[in-house]
Amino acid sequence: MPTPSMEDYLEQIYLLIDQKGYARVSDIAENLSVQPSSVTKMVQKLDKDDYLIYEKYRGIVLTPKGKKIGQRLLLRHELLEQFLELIGVKKENIYNDVEGIEHHLSWNSIDRIGDLVQYLEKNKQEYENYLMELNNSEKN
């Protein structure tokens, strides 16, 4: 199982490949705000652990194992953003909050949050009524 740091890299590599069709060390470094040398070290480790294929001065290719994990990590991130938005967290706080919690939740917890998000989306009017009641009771 990848470490939280490895997960950040895999998620970013997956996202870059999905958006641009490729991922380069310089792009990863820029997006994660780290030095290219740190990216190179991590990419070499991810290559050794069969998450990706890395050849110096060439692009990075995710293995099927790396793709599967990268996709799941991106979905986890997006789900947590959606959840925090649904429960009323201020937009400017969401990204940092997700970054702070995403590595500390079990996949079972993530699945249950996914179930809750689906329920809230399906029953949006009831949920909005609940939030209005809650707001009113806090004001009194």
Task: Tell me what the structure shows.
- The chain is mainly alpha-helical.
- The chain folds into two domains: 4-68, Orthogonal Bundle (Arc Repressor Mutant, subunit A), CATH 1.10.10; 76-138, Orthogonal Bundle (Diphtheria Toxin Repressor, domain 2), CATH 1.10.60.
- The protein has seven helices and two strands, in the order αααββαααα.
- It has a two-stranded antiparallel ribbon with strand order 1-2.
- Helix 1 packs across helix 2 (25-32), helix 1 (4-20) packs across helix 4 (64-86) and helix 4 crosses helix 5.
- The model has no long low-confidence stretch (mean pLDDT 93).
* Text of the CATH class of the largest domain: Mainly Alpha
Q: What count of helical segments does DSSP give?
A: 7
- Structural domain tally: 2
- The string of secondary-structure elements, in order, is HHHEEHHHH
Uncertain residue ranges: none
Subcellular location: Cytoplasm
Subunit structure: Homodimer.
Main location: cytoplasm
GO molecular function, one term: protein dimerization activity
Key terms for this structure?
7 helices; metal-binding; Arc Repressor Mutant, subunit A; 2 strands; 140 residues; Diphtheria Toxin Repressor, domain 2; 2 domains; manganese ion binding; two-stranded antiparallel ribbon; mainly alpha; cytoplasm; elongated; single chain
